[in-house]
User: Fold this.
Amino acid sequence: MTQKEEPPLSRVPRAVRVASLLSEGEELSGDDNDRGDEDEDDHAYEGVPNGGWHTSSLSLPLPSLTSEPPPHPMDGLPGGSTPITPVIKAGWLDKNPPQGSYIYQKRWVRLDADYLRYFDSNKDAYSKRFISVACISRVAAIGDQKFEVITNNRTFAFRAESDVERRAWMQALQQAVAEQRARARLSSAYLLGVPGSEQPDRAGSLELRGFKNKLYVAVVGDKVQLYKNLEEYHLGIGITFVDMSVGNVKEVDRRSFDLTTPYRIFSFSADSELEKEQWLEAMQGAIAEALSTSEVAERIWAAAPNRFCADCGAAQPDWASINLCVVICKRCAGEHRGLGAGVSKVRSLKMDKKVWTETLIELFLQLGNGAGNHFWAANVPPSEALQPSSSPGTRRRHLEAKYREGKYRRYHPLFGNQEELDKALCAAVTTTDLAETQALVGCGAGISCFSGDPEAPTPLALAEQAGQTLQMEFLRNNRTTEVPRLDSMKPLEKHYSVVLPTVSHSGFLYKTASAGKPLHDRRAREEFSRRWCVLSDGVLSYYENERAVTPNGEIRASEIVCLAVPPPDTHGFEHTFEVYTEGERLYLFGLESAELAHEWVKCIAKAFVPPLAEDLLAQDFERLGRLPYKAGLSLQQAQEGWFSLTGSELHAVFPEGPCEEPLQLRKLQELSVQGDSENQVLVLVERRRTLYIQGERRLDFMGWLGAIQKAAASLGDTLSEQQLGDSDIPVIVYRCVDYITQCGLTSEGIYRKCGQTSKTQRLLESLRQDARSVRLKEGEQHVDDVSSALKRFLRDLPDGLFTRAQRLAWLEASEIEDEEEKVSRYRELLVRLPPVNRATVKALISHLYCVQCFSDTNQMNTHNLAIVFGPTLFQTDGQDYKAGRVVEDLISHYVVVFSVDEEELRKQREEITAIVKMRVAGTASGTQHAGDFICTVYLEEKKAETEQHVKIPASMTAEELTLEILDRRNVGIREKDYWTCFEVNEREEAERPLHFAEKVLPILHGLGTDSHLVVKKHQSMEAMLLYLASRVGDTKHGMMKFREDRSLLGLGLPSGGFHDRYFILNSSCLRLYKEVRSHRPEKEWPVKSLKVYLGVKKKLRPPTCWGFTVVHETEKHEKQQWYLCCDTQMELREWFATFLFVQHDGLVWPSEPSRVSRALPEVRLGSVSLIPLRGSENEMRRSVAAFTTDPLSYRNVLLTPGLWEPGGGRNSLLASTCESCLRSLHCLPSAGGS
Assistant:
């Protein structure tokens, strides 16, 4: 009888959530002891006691099996590149239930090289049972078309539709068993006595929704296998397995997670949150394994030594260390990662496909495990050698000794002579002897040593000069590799490797399960377990009770990296503390007694903090530990320092140098996080120093980051608890005052008008939360909303600006009649105020002094400001006139009360003068707007006499700004004058001509303290326009010298020199190629996101004087910078012109008529131009410029007879406009004067 064909599969089954893998009524019995005689309800797990072993049953002839089995639902889904095991035979068979009755059940049976599986239906994706072919003992015929599949302790009975069909099944099974045994004899698993070909990445019991009892689950390679219990796992008889190429896992709650496939959703529950995380990690690894490709692995395995792990000897290792050039297994790869990237850079052969260039693959074929172990494992004692079954701790210790300490390496004859090692390396890299290079580097030769040849100053340059691409690849991968040290100390850990004092302590603690991520949620009291804890000999051990002999676990003090004390009542116990370890684990302990908790914290701190940092234990810290950092002038190499956080102070102890002053976190100028999620850096900028803290260990770094950000934020409502600036002024006050000074001094009714309540409240909340990160920008916030937020903040201060204790004394002082005595009293009271209050009062009154200078426009003179701010600052109901009098007196006597010196007053008046000029010009032109940004722009060069204070509205372009500066200084524009506004960066020694249509305001907001704007002639523009007019096409390509600026935060100061690279620039991107013949670009950048500056800073020693600096800002606002040099000035102009052309769609320069200065009629009185009533905006600006340049003429004009008389025509308008402004600046005599 021929085999039945499977009906065609019409469509892929939809994903549905099921309660069980079994059919209705098929539940697990829950009795794990049932082996051969299952009850009737347990017939999903059929089996009868096994029969005897008969070798003759496997001696039947094995004909070739050419029948093609029908498709299966799982075969139609796209997975990764993992090959699908071909089906040997499939078809319908009758299966005898385990109790041996005469009622057979029809099953769809599939056989492949690894498993015999049977299903309810030929459309089911997951089997009812599977039997590992490796566990089948024999296959025997028992009559009536029946046959038995016999394992070591189970027998499965099947019935075919004919003797021919039965014979075909038996032959297929016997052939599969024979082939499997042949394969197993060659595998390491067989030698270890393990059934199957692969050790599980994780195995254990899990609850599965719909099953009465827990199932035993194993993650093996790219599959998740389900078994009834541990015994059946060892027998190789399971329920089903899930191919993870179609699987996905996600968290559901604290202990549960779902494994989702297109066919079913498996809902699992673990015993703890920690176990759940470990299962998720294992299953995500299986997904990655399933979706990976083995192409690279197979090529690297072509070298025989690479087929086994370089460290433990496990077969088919699919990971590698690209700097050590060794191939390793998954378990060793995990420990290699723990060594850090400075020792071993771990990559996957199957998943990191982009890493594996042809050069790197060839390097591994030339070196690999053969040469690697010849050097690194030359002296490994047999007793210290690793095995595939070695524990993680054993692996860790062995790999530390092997690679970090170099304990087993083969020493080079020149070892210990640095100069000779460097010379030998420079000679070796010019040859093909890679093993020699590896030995020299492993024994301490300097990768970046000077070769003595200026043309090729480093070994890498020598290798490039000699055309040794494999040597170049090896050197590049080892640029940042640390030299092995025999003293077994990490370079970053020398300072705490001393013997720590012995600390002993014991008692009961309440402990939760360790976690692998920060504890954001409150841990309930029920989650803590009472444990007897003992701290002794540098080990914290915890036991089930005080009588237990064996500890449940232990934490070594040398592995503790951080100790944190959360605020009381953070978790179920009132007092808790957290212990972070190097293994990225977090342990939470709790106690009800504050004294006991404090004692435990102090004892643990003493156990892991070295004597160098013992001063940190003097304070009641909130967080204590060690972190990698960079500071001062040592930015190339990270060091490890000890830090403690106490309140808003961060104390630091560094391995070298004197004790550091604590950082006042609320006074930081900048607190930011840079880098990507894997390599984060916390940047702390104080007035005199900058500190970079690196996130080498993510778990404790995230804890430090959150704690520092919280400590740097405002802690309460009092002034002293706010974020503070350099002068002890709260940042919230500074932000508001600065914005109103720039944008709202001429706004009518400033501080009297109220902003929108909702906007004011949102703004105030954001300022209170983190004023340092709030940027008030023109157009985004209205001045009235900002002024209302400032008033609300000052009024809501619990103690008030003048404090409750001194408030009455201030009010009483206002009633003193003698002015000198009153001012003296104010000065006395000012000294008594707390420092922050005193600095804030001065800053606020100084600001109000500026505001009243514009009272002719904003209608807020001294008296009006006093009416508004008196009740606000003294928190009265407005009925007490004395509060307003105090404010009025302070503004009127500002210079005397606050001891303002001449220099400070001069700077303040310069600022007011600039604003006055803008207000006069704006009023005359009818274009006055509150909220414009005022900045300083220079003409031709940065000098005090060339500076111009310009108001920059949001719509102003670079062309408009250029014309305004030229018109102010009455500079004419000739036909071929290409006047342009440049952005100059003094630190980088570079400048960028702004495109004429660029908006100026966004550029101003991005300028640093070492940058400014200058208007000058663009000397190269004519030549660039001629080049653009004559060239063909809109692309450019050619060789340039290239150097990348490596960030100080990541890879140290810029290293290496300029190298020849081939570039192609088109309308969409800039591509960098290693050489002209290269087919794939090394780098590629979108051209629209590039900023190109002319010039390269001299300290980089550019090879030519014709260079430019290119800055690329990513979508995450991270900046990358590099330098390009051309051979000639003409080449530089051509490249720069092409950049402008492609970035601005061909419009490099505007049409000529817009650049030609107009002939302007002038109205003069004496030598001074007058502001006409009607005319262009530029005419009005020129008049204002004339007043500025000749104040004496201006004074004479203002004193001209008849000028101030009523009916004086347009002159009277000028007088009325300017008199009040300049009189407020004490430039004019008061009324009634001469």
Notes: DSSP finds 33 helices and 47 strands in the chain.
